[in-house]
Amino acid sequence: MFECVINVSEGRDLALLDELSSSVSSSLRDRHSDEFHNRSVFTLVNDPDVLVQDVRSLIGAAFARLDLATHQGVHPRFGVVDVVPFVALDTDQSAVALSMRDDTARWIATTFDVPCFLYGQVKGRLRTLPEVRLGAFRSLPPDVGPDAPSPKLGAVAVGARPVLVAWNLWLSGVTLLEAKVIASTIRRPEVRALGFEVGALVQVSCNLIDPMKVGPSFVYDQVASLVPPGGVIQRAELVGLIPAAVLDGEDPSRWAMLGLSDHQTIEYRCRLA
User: Which superfamily is assigned to 2-160 in CATH?
Assistant: First the structure.
């Protein structure tokens, strides 16, 4: 089984998001939307043949309905379909995920004339998504497709990576500058973090790159120790799904505080099919 976690630059129009969801057959396991980021994360899991078809259907539907020129949101983005990472849930199948990544990037570039940047293993070295965001169209040319972004659709980062956990902490009584300092302080090879203003609150938005080594509880406690006097962690939020092994590594008495449950695991959602 393989996972593909497609990040789409729309998080407010629920009817449109329902329409995009309906473009997917059996692979869709979760959809998470955020109005402040104006972004949705579609988690697809299936065997390769079905997964690739559902990925293409969702990308095609998003390209048909969305326009990057009208998009506003706090999350960094350079495309209507911003990020398309493939994940081998069995690490012995990583080469298959790389093949799906490369085939999908070529399909996007050929079918829609949209430039694509690869991340993961590229030309014998590891290229990260932050590298792509930093260098795209400046120091880094697209791997496939035209040299300039589409005015309507932008560009796409297509990756092959291990499992990660996307997870946010919502804070009150904390300024945006303080949230950015907290995010910078907790950043490490296993944790990517950014600070955002989300309505009346701020958010420390995290990607746990090696969640078996550095999990949600560790990051929660670290952030709690850095929150200034008067500040409070209001809630934690999982974006997408979490591997059961990562959840099992957390104290069940803390699951609610961490915004986690056994119904949010990849394994549970796949059993529902």
Answer: Formiminotransferase, N-terminal subdomain (3.30.990.10)
d(CA 98, CA 10): 27
Domain regions of the chain by residue span: 2-160, 165-271
Q: Does domain 165-271 have CATH number 2.30.29.150?
A: no
Closest CA to 156 of 145, 169, 172: 145
Please write the tens of the pLDDT for every residue from 183-210.
Answer: 999 999 999 999 999 999 999 999 999 9
What is the C-alpha end-to-end distance of the chain, expressed in Å? 13
- Could you read off the pLDDT of 212-269 as tens digits, one per residue? 999 999 999 999 999 999 999 999 999 999 999 999 999 999 999 999 999 999 999 9
62 vs 15, 79, 153, 190, CA distance in Å? 13, 11, 9, 31
- 37 and 72 Cβ atoms separated by less than 8 Å: no
CA dist list (Å): 167 to 118, 170, 174, 233, 265: 23, 10, 19, 13, 13
pLDDT, one tens digit per residue, over 98-140 is 999 999 999 999 999 999 999 999 999 999 999 999 999 999 9
